[in-house]
Amino acid sequence: MRKDRRKFLGAAALGGALAGCASKEGAVEVTEEPSLLGKPVGAYGERSPFENVKRHLNDTKTPQAASSRTPLHQLHGIITPSALHFERHHSGVPHLDPAQHRLLIHGLVERPLVLTVAELKRLPSVSRVHFVECSGNTGSEWSPKGAPDVQRGFGLASCSEWTGVPLSLLLAEAGLKKEAKWMLAEGADPCKMSRSVPVEKAMNDAMIAYAQNGEAIRPEQGYPLRLILPGWEGNINVKWLRRLHVADEPFYTKDETSKYTELQSDGKARIFTFEMDAKSVITSPSGEQKIGGPGFHEISGLAWSGRGRIEKVEVSIDGGKTWKPAQLQEPRYSKAFTRFRFPWEFTGVETIIVSRAVDETGYVQPSRQELIAARGTNSQYHNNATKPWRVAADGSVTNVEA
Amino acid sequence: MWRRSALAVLYAGVALAAEPKYKLGRAATAEDIAAVDISVLADGRGLPAGSGTAAQGKDLYFRRCSKCHGAEGQGREEGGPLVGGKGTLTTAKPLKTVGSFWPQATTLFDYIRRAMPFDRPGTFSNEQVYQATAQVLFLNGLIGENDVMDAKTLPKVAMPNRDGFVKDPRPKVK
């Protein structure tokens, strides 16, 4: 009986292929009907063994003080799987027991507080979709050469649904004194990475997150607690958060003076540059990919802004001479990745494709030339320039050297 | 009578606004805070007791710092340069070091205490942190070999690039 059915299905598939005059390789293959059962239910899921998308690791002598990059060109929609969220650590990932971990809030507060993770989870919670982007992302693009692909060039950005307690709620519990202007946010990693956060941001949309994409935050993303400052540079979203020290001044930590400041051409450096400006990049097709021949291809990419929602993304398929609006995936969240899509007929003639984002404040993503005219080339961080990709006649996609 | 109780409710409401609403967690004691408070402000608040000179820190630097930062603080692959770069900030190849770029000397103490030495962060005593701080400042020519660095003297070290930082002009300027 089973055998007969298999034969029948095979014949039907063959007939279909003949009738439809499918291409030589297009015949539908019939999978053997399994005679054995598949895998049983499991306690924690894994991806298919056929899938091997990975973060990109740099070659370094200090892998505990390094970064890994998200394969944006191999992902879909707007959510980055937690296991592929980019990493940047300064002294490695600590092993923290949530039962032992504490958050201390002290300094210019009426009631210095110690909270356990379990206590934080009892408080009113919020879930919000936000990107986190290292301000060093796209640093490669200050140089005329640029990165060869989107993962190495743009992979220090990821987007998750974060769940936690609004920081404003905790600060109301502790009672801010009127002199309170800044607070030190400190991690429990071996180097106690720390940054100064303005009280205004802390009281606005900051969150103490304990969950990412529906489950506990991954160790490399700050387990058990991470400070999320929506739209602000990745480094200040302090992981493994253990302490908030409220003060009247910023603390001028190493990571807000010697690093994460932007040297301008006049030799002065911008300090406390928090917001990530509007940015977009075409992820498909992008550098090092090869598209099929002429015909229909969907151009797709990501846009985001640290100042609010993405209002518009425009795509040019002629190297920036003309621009047309792309379709934006809904809903569009504030300070989150927005997926854009643009239908394209590739004619087989070499061309340059590029995207440009506009956010709800009206800010337009600048070109590399505009950015350099304003800042020079020593800025290192906060490069949000548009990114052109060259598509050759044979469909191979490469980085455009400036 | 109803007026009085309404008033009482109103007063209670005002008082509640200043009181914690959820009352979770516990009051942090001075011991709780002292156990983890390693914050230092630029004016020196938070700097601990103790002191050190470059002369005292020379050997410590050689043993625990030079492997990554080089014998003279010139930097190696593992650790950035600590010394040099004077006059390079407007050139095509700026060299940002403690001497050429860092605005505050207190940052150096704070960072060494938190994060150094790289393979054993936070294991220096406060005396050793003052000594290592003094040695790096001395290698930059900012203090003498026998100048004592402590909670009073460190914030007063004249950092060459103290005025080299400007407020973020974005989004007005790109």
Task: Outline the structure in words.
The complex is a heterodimer of chains A (402) and B (174). By secondary structure, chain A is of the alpha+beta class. Chain A folds into two domains: 67-270, Sulfite Oxidase, Chain A, domain 2, CATH 3.90.420; 279-399, Immunoglobulin-like, CATH 2.60.40.650. Chain A has six helices and 24 strands. Chain A has helices at residues 2-19, 117-122, 150-154, 167-174, 199-204, 368-375; strands at 56-57, 67-69, 87-88, 102-107, 113-116, 126-133, 157-166, 182-187, 194-198, 207-212, 215-216, 226-228, 241-247, 262-263, 269-271, 279-284, 295-304, 310-316, 324-325, 327-328, 338-346, 351-359, 389-391, 397-399. In chain A, the strands form six sheets. A five-stranded mixed β-sheet of chain A has the order 5-4-13-8-9. The longest helix of chain A is centred in the N-terminal third of the chain and has 18 residues, at 2-19. Chain A is globular and about 70 Å long. Mean pLDDT of chain A is 93; it is low at 1-23. Chain B has a domain at 40-156: Orthogonal Bundle (Cytochrome Bc1 Complex, Chain D, domain 2), CATH 1.10.760.10. Chain B has a two-stranded antiparallel sheet with strand order 2-3. Chain B is mainly alpha-helical. The longest helix of chain B is centred in the N-terminal third of the chain and has 17 residues, at 2-18. The termini of chain B are far apart. Chain B has helices at 2-18, 30-36, 54-64, 66-69, 105-115, 126-139; strands at 26-27, 51-52, 149-150, 165-167. Chain B is globular. Chains A and B meet through strand 4, strand 5, helix 2, helix 4 and strand 13 of A and strand 1, helix 2, helix 5 and strand 4 of B. Strand 5 (113-116) of chain A pairs antiparallel with strand 1 (26-27) of chain B.
